[in-house]
Write a structure and sequence with these properties.
Number of domains: 2
Number of helices: 3
Distance between the termini: 61 Å
Largest sheet: 2 strands, antiparallel
CATH superfamily of the largest domain: Glutaredoxin
CATH architecture of the largest domain: 3-Layer(aba) Sandwich
Helix content: 40-55%
Order of helices and strands: HEEEHEH
Radius of gyration: 23 Å
Number of strands: 4
CATH class of the largest domain: Alpha Beta
Strand order of the largest sheet: 1-2
CATH topology of the largest domain: Glutaredoxin
Length: 121
């Protein structure tokens, strides 16, 4: 086989791989994040009064959740893998849902280390 023919075949193969990779990326992007587990609550649970501190040092209470849907995640900043991955998934859900008012609220379970100043960065 001549060098010209080999180069032509390699160029065609590279083009086909590029087109195939682009198509696959588009298909995966459309699928969006998948729910891997969860609990369906047919009746909403009542949220009791609470008082927390947000990243600016202001009070965050039950009233702070009124008016817009919220996703609340409990974790800690020194969490090596699950917390960052879950927060990334929640950000993707927020983007995919196209709900500009949807809030993702992170509640630390390690307030000794996770200070408002640290969480605000």
């Amino acid at each position: 086989m001549s060098k010209v023919r080999v180069r032509l075949l390699l160029a065609v193969a590279a083009l086909a791989a590029s087109v195939g990779g682009y198509w696959l990326a588009q298909q995966l992007d459309r699928a969006g994040p998948r729910l891997t587990s969860g609990t369906w609550l047919p009746q909403p649970k009542a949220v009791r009064d609470f008082a927390l501190t947000d990243t600016t040092g202001s009070s965050f209470t039950r009233a702070s959740l009124v008016g817009a849907p919220s996703l609340v995640f409990f974790g800690f900043t020194r969490c090596p893998d699950v917390c960052p991955a879950t927060l990334l998934q929640l950000a993707q859900v927020r983007k995919a849902a196209a709900l500009p008012t949807l809030r993702v609220v992170f509640v630390s379970v390690d307030p000794q280390r996770d200070t408002p100043a640290l969480l605000g960065t």
